[in-house]
User: What shape does this take?
Amino acid sequence: MSTSTTATAGSARTEFLQVKDATYAYRRIGGGFRRPLLCLQHFAGTLDNWDPAVADPLGDGREVILFDSAGVGRSSGNVPTTVAGMAAHALQFLDGLCLTSCDVLGFSLGGMVAQQMALERPSSIHRMILVGTAPRGGEDIMHLEKPSLARHLGDPALKGYAVLQKIFFAPTSSSQAAGGAFIERLARRTEDLDPASGPDVMAAQIAAFRDWEQSLGARFADLKGISQPALVVNGVHDEMIPVSNSYRLAENLPNAVLLVYPDSGHGSLFQYHESFTRHAAAFLTSDSPLAPY
Amino acid sequence: MSTSTTATAGSARTEFLQVKDATYAYRRIGGGFRRPLLCLQHFAGTLDNWDPAVADPLGDGREVILFDSAGVGRSSGNVPTTVAGMAAHALQFLDGLCLTSCDVLGFSLGGMVAQQMALERPSSIHRMILVGTAPRGGEDIMHLEKPSLARHLGDPALKGYAVLQKIFFAPTSSSQAAGGAFIERLARRTEDLDPASGPDVMAAQIAAFRDWEQSLGARFADLKGISQPALVVNGVHDEMIPVSNSYRLAENLPNAVLLVYPDSGHGSLFQYHESFTRHAAAFLTSDSPLAPY
Assistant: This one.
């Protein structure tokens, strides 16, 4: 990988990588000599959903790689109906880039994929940041039929990014104001855009959530096998993947620091982007084998 | 207050302040122009129980004030049997120092006193760090009769600080090693020591814990009235005041960041003193009205 890219989330052109019979869309931001950071996206999200206020600062000193999994955005194929299927694509993408080790920022669904990658091929994952996500066997994961979510998702007045302001942020004036700033930042990119995710993408990803809610064997036992340093982050009022799931991650991952933000929901990393990127950079640049930074 | 003190936890001489009919023992560490940091101690702890690896770095740029509440160490009077009684003494001590505003680091019992101070006189408390503590109405607070604690507290072989290695740290080799280093650091101070707390001190403090477990009105409703920025810290395997109490603090305080450490117990701040003091300093020096730092 080049270490001289200086693109931002707003300016990075979309690139395409063919690996075996798959073509993956991705963007590279920033650059430097630190280990690359692979960013794994949330339910229905594409490359365009990465907040420049998060992605750009993380690109200071390292390459940040935004990735469309199979069937999402302009990547080929169908969306897998399991997290394991998505993890297989992400690992194949790393192989195609000839990256033998990277750090990972997994948000929501992406955090589940990150855990699965760490379990399947530990050598590829150095440090993990798991935001607004859940362990396998977690509770109340992305139940979009809940009234607190359905009333926004079914509101025809909320077009484009506007629904994200409602469902990623807490129903307080301060959090909603941060949500407004977030969608304004996303909207600044107007060219070389991914197509928005359609019903097929969402149905397959929801199937993956339903599967992820089922424990395989003793609940949370698989987390003991993830020894990489992890930073688990959430907003205390996350309606999409409640903060209790972050508690279970921190309690069962052997090497995880938990950071929870006030007055915020699923999108805490966007609401507190200055704090989040400061913590994330400190965590990622630590040379300790332990998670505390 | 002088801002030129440069004493360390190991060298600071004990000072005495008379306020009304009470005499309070305290020590001052470090110095600088930042707001002073009042440190409120744990069950049975005295001035000698502050880890220099925590207190000294915090004294870089500010005065750190270690405080013996009434009836503890060489402070006069009897130990109150309620947290409110202890908070009244701490506020009277601030009055005696002519400090109209300070930051507070409250550990365990001290964190309860800090919450009570913030409720009773909000103007005196600027930012709060609450470590290994619980809200009023919290659960499983300092039940020393639990087998996991009683087996150490009743072990005649564990003399002096040695019992703290067992009850403040997790039962893993890594956490116990950190506990060994902690008690070695405490033992370096050999002069001008406080008397150890006796059964009367402990009985009164335990009575205060039992009272604190009882909600007054709706559970955790009082926390909504504490608007100061707070940093809530715990070890994920705290046996003395379980981490669930820190979850409830972060969920109900309107302006709190939660930081939870892995592989650690009640004494997470001592185990990860480098990380803790880095986070604490960043939190305390923030000039935002919000807790995220």
Remarks:
- DSSP finds ten helices and eight strands in chain A.
- The mean pLDDT of chain A is 96.
- The radius of gyration of chain A is 17 Å.
